[in-house]
Amino acid sequence: MTKPECSKKETSGEQEEEEIKIITEDTGKDSQTENATTAKDLFSVFAPEDSNSGDENEKQDDKKDENYEPSPKKSKDNSKKYIPKYKKEWENKPELKSWLSESIHGNTYFYCKFCKKDYRCGISDIHKHMSSKKHMLRAAMPAFKAQKFKFRGLLCPVFTPFTNIKRVTPDVNLKAIQKYANFLNACNIKGILINDIIGEGMSLTIRERMDLTDAWAEACEKNNQFLMVQIGGAPLKDVIEMAKHANKREVGAIVILPDLYNKPNSHLDLIKYLKLISEFTKNVPILYHHNPKFTHVEINVVSFLLDIIGEVDSFVGLIYSTNDIQQSTAAMTINREKFTVFMGTDEAVLGAAASGFSCIMGTSLNFLPKLVESICDSVKKGNIKNAQTSQNLLNRTIDLISKQGDSIAAFKAATDIITNTCGTTTREPLQSLWEGTIKKMQSKLRELGV
After folding, report:
1. How far is CA 96 from the centre of its chain?
2. pLDDT tens digits, residue range 227-274?
3. CB 33 within 8 A of CB 45
4. Confidence (pTM)
5. Residue ranges of region Disordered (predicted)?
6. Architecture of domain 153-374
């Protein structure tokens, strides 16, 4: 049977009505978008018809969040890995005693005296290194024997004699060295330090410094004086060259100032610097000159002495050029058998002698050696009153000289006035004292009874 035509018309009519509704709805929206004047009007066109349906969806999402249970996380292992640390008692073991030492890099390293290197710590690492081919070869070599530093007494930092020709760079007067050495020897001064701050070492060429070393080595050999040579305050390459030369001359000891441009940031940097130089000095004793007023290098001297043990075998001590008796005394008490500490200031001679210092350095030994010696002798005899009187006279003399001009130029002129040994000329940029100033200082020194 075929369906009636009326039913087909009805169904087609319904479809047409639905299509018209959809078209009118779309055209309505289009007209609304066309009539929108602001962004707010534009978004309102596309807002959901039933706002409640959106709220219901949000509530359902909240319920899902409430019912959500996070998956169990893997528990982290908070236990730290074991880091082997150096133990001091390991040094007492017979097989380790001769070569094992603490490292300056901390307690997670050890230092091998044979290989001259630091290695990762741990007893198994130590035994592994001990059985290595390199270590066994080093151990078979003859043991290094640093020359013992036996000097005790007064150390004089000498001036550098120049010719009296008035020019920017006067020549070094090597002919005056023997006379200078003879005067100090006659005053019972057995310790000589050359090319240091007082000796204008940083104003000299490398060749001049080595020529002075040769001249003083010959003079000291004749007088049986102990020669110490300062080689620092210059580029490392030049320092190494001077170290080799001093080693060849077999000087009594080498004194080192830090690099004055690339200054060490800590005492550990300084130890590394001294370690580099020590490779070229063999068994010649090395001392460090601590003079922060001049070098502007501030380090903890006590930590420095503690950490350098085992790092530089030829290191034997330091010259402490400050007025801080407390710090210098603390440094003096560290490993007395190995280290020698010089007190290096004129104003503290009495305090240094009373504190037990057996080594004292002072600029005044150039022109008043007997006065300084009398202070030390009075302290030994327990005559503190005489020592104080001598120290007061020394302080007044130093104060008078210091007011005449640059300290090095003034002290050099005073030395020549009293001893006629080193001349009054300094090298630029230091300014030599004028002749009028020298004459005034001479009369004032006479008034003091010097």
Report:
1. 30
2. 999 999 999 999 999 999 999 999 999 999 999 999 999 999 999 999
3. yes
4. 0.71
5. 1-80
6. Alpha-Beta Barrel (3.20)
